[in-house]
Structures are given as structure tokens and as C-alpha cells.
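Hi C.,

You asked whether I'd gotten around to modeling the 150-residue construct. I have! Everything is below, sequence then structure, no commentary in between.
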Amino acid sequence: MDEFASRIDSKVDQRGRVAIPAPFRAILAQEGTSEIHCYPHLDYATIEAGGSRLVEEIKGIVGRQPTGSALREALELVYFGECEKLKIDPDGRTVLPKRLRDHAGITETAVFVGLGNKFQIWEPEAYNKFRERAREQALALRKELGAGSR
């Protein structure tokens, strides 16, 4: 199974419609789904999204917690209670709900970023800032692990 990878920018229209990048749609098709599961990221102003592999991973995380436990209920709330299942139309578009767009600050352009079994949807400037911090962290970790610089 292929992985979600790369950065692809997509215009958002007045109604919140956005084209899901073709490579991402192809992976969703491999998973046998024509919808995406989207929820607000807990730490960042971005939307986490994916298909059936992401849902199965989340079910596994939640299922390892005791039924009725506070942790399980918290996980169920943030991953399932806040989730939107978005259908992809025949033209490859979906409508990002206003509450998700507001969470991520998305207005005119959505940045799709592949992360293996899932992807994120960002506002462009927020993504650029996050990417720079992530790069700095990766460089620091590489030095800490003794890999040095190139």
C-alpha cells in the first residue's frame, strides 16, 4: 500500500470546496474508500485526515484502553466525536466544514501534506512556520544522534 507523501496546494472556494490531490485520492482508492475522516489536530492549527488505515490505527489505540476509562473516553471524543466523514465527489472535491476550516485558519488555499498513513491540511503560512520549526528539530535530533551535518 502506498503512503501519503508530498506537499500539494489546493484552492478553496467560497463554499469551502477543495480538490483532494490526485495522488491522495489514488491512495484512498487503494484503501477502498471514497471518503476521508478529518478531525482537528490536538496541538496544532491543522486538520488531520486519512482513510481506512488511519481509522484502523485509531481504533487500535482506543481499543487498548479499558472500556469506560477516562482516557478511552477522551480518545473517543477527540478522534471520533470531533471527526467529520467527508465524501469525495466524482470531480475529486470535498467540502471542508467551516468549523474545521476555522480551526486551521484555512481561507483561500489549503496545503495538503502527506505523513505516511495520514495527511494534514494546513493554512499555507501556518504550515511554512511549522515546517521551519520541524526542520530545526530534525537537525538538532540528527546532531544529537551523532549523524552530524552534510
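If it helps when you're writing up: The chain has a mean pLDDT of 95.

Thanks,
B.
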